[in-house]
Amino acid sequence: MDDPDLAWLRRVADGDEGALERLYARHSTALLRYAQRLLGDREAAEEALQDTFVALWQGAGSFEGRSAVRTWLFGICRRQALARAGRHREESLPVDYAEAFPDGAARPDDVVLARADAAAVGAALARLPAAQREVIHLAFAAELPHAAIAQLLSIPVGTVKSRLFLARAALARALPGATAVERSRR
């Protein structure tokens, strides 16, 4: 596996603080957004991010290479955020979650999503089941491939694809203009 972060991770395992700072600079923004999506609270997300990098510092030598370092970091972050959330996991997402979606899509439902009002997208995302929201975020905001998402969530790749399909379909139906998109697909 040609992973540009692997050399940095090995240096972290050897106690190199500069390498830890490098990995933090490369991944902290995406990890913080992910933790905030999971927790719904910026302060709790920042604490989960800090816990993620403490765990990275302490466990860098245990990396087995079964995934990309970035995927491994998202797994650590997910565990830290969910441990912090406990049983009272936040189910709603902030409106700025819509920023995670690209605006140059070719399919009609993608065009509707890209042009939709941010508040409408945020509300539509909040109505999705948590499992679909998480897959949407990992695929679009974190830009993880389907196989990495499947490994991170311990689900089959087909389940990742199904959740993405269902989430995108639900979002297209929930957003203004979706009716025309649905008619054009028939």
UniProtKB/TrEMBL annotation:
UniProtKB keywords: DNA-binding, Sigma factor, Transcription, Transcription regulation
Pfam families listed in its UniProt record: Sigma70_r2, Sigma70_r4_2
Every RNA polymerase sigma-70 region domain range: 23-88
Transcription as UniProt keyword: yes
Sequence ranges assigned to domain RNA polymerase sigma factor 70 region 4 type in this UniProt record: 120-171
Gene3D superfamilies: 1.10.1740.10, Winged helix-like DNA-binding domain superfamily/Winged helix DNA-binding domain
InterPro entries the UniProt entry points to: RNA_pol_sigma-70-like, RNA_pol_sigma-70_dom, RNA_pol_sigma70_r2, RNA_pol_sigma70_r4_t2, RNA_pol_sigma_r2, RNA_pol_sigma_r3/r4-like, WH-like_DNA-bd_sf
Domain of life: Bacteria
Coiled-coil portions: none
Family: Belongs to the sigma-70 factor family. ECF subfamily.
NCBIfam families from the UniProt entry: sigma70-ECF
Protein name: RNA polymerase sigma factor
The species this protein was found in: Dactylosporangium vinaceum
The organism's taxonomic lineage, starting at the top: Bacteria, Bacillati, Actinomycetota, Actinomycetes, Micromonosporales
